[in-house]
Design brief:
Number of helices: 6
Number of strands: 0
Oligomer: single chain
Radius of gyration: 18 Å
Order of helices and strands: HHHHHH
Mean pLDDT: 90
Number of domains: 1
Distance between the termini: 36 Å
Helix content: over 70%
Largest sheet: none
Length: 167
């Protein structure tokens, strides 16, 4: 995504701030999506079940579901790339160089994108009955994996910062 930037620029505080501002901008856009999409987004909960998917499906209506699909496939595809890049840059800035630990935010972004694809598929169904239990199950699993890995990433960064300040 940012392959054209020099390593020095990529790891600068200005670039990190720029990515953070983009994350905030995306968050504000999410909160102002039409049809109260933000209120019904399955992405924001820790897992979801058939009842929650049904509630979202019915509450949004056909136009709301179309808007949800567009936001999931466009805006909510950009968002995982931004937070993944942000987490990686913050990790490197805090001397977290272990390849396994750096892979955790990458995995969270990948699970987020897989979740978005399944949610878009569910919301594009002609009727709720066309949504399979497998789509709901795997969408929820991807959702939970995303949140667990984001939590691990945040804890890892916080512990590293706290440890650095204590030493």
């Amino acid at each position: 995504m940012f392959f054209f930037l020099k390593k020095k620029t990529l790891f600068s505080n200005k670039f990190l701030l720029f990515i953070f501002i983009l994350l905030i901008a995306c968050s504000i856009i999410f909160q102002n999506l039409p049809n109260d999409i933000f209120k019904y987004m399955l992405d924001l909960s820790f897992g979801f079940n058939q009842e929650k998917v049904f509630f979202t499906y019915e509450s949004l209506g056909e136009i709301g579901r179309k808007n949800y699909i567009y936001s999931a496939l466009i805006l909510d595809t950009i968002f995982p790339f931004l937070y993944t890049l942000f987490f990686i840059l913050v990790s490197f800035k805090n001397n977290i160089n272990n390849k396994f630990l750096i892979f955790i935010p990458i995995l969270s972004g990948a699970f987020d994108i897989l979740e978005n694809i399944l949610i878009s598929k569910m919301m594009s169904s002609k009727s709720f009955e066309d949504i399979s239990l497998y789509e709901i199950f795997f969408g929820s699993i991807f959702n939970q994996c995303k949140w667990i890995l984001i939590s691990i990433t945040l804890l890892m960064i916080v512990f590293k910062i706290m440890n650095r300040r204590l030493v």
